[in-house]
Amino acid sequence: MPIGLTIALITVPLVLFTARAIFPQLPWKRYARTSSWPDIGLLSFGSIGLILHCAAMFYRDLVQTIPGTDGYVKWVNEMGWVSIVLYVLPASVVVVALRRQHPLAVAIVALTFIAVGVTMYNSGPLSTHLTMIALAATALVGTTSMLLRTQLRRKGPDTGMAD
Question: 135: which strand partners?
Answer without folding.
Answer: none
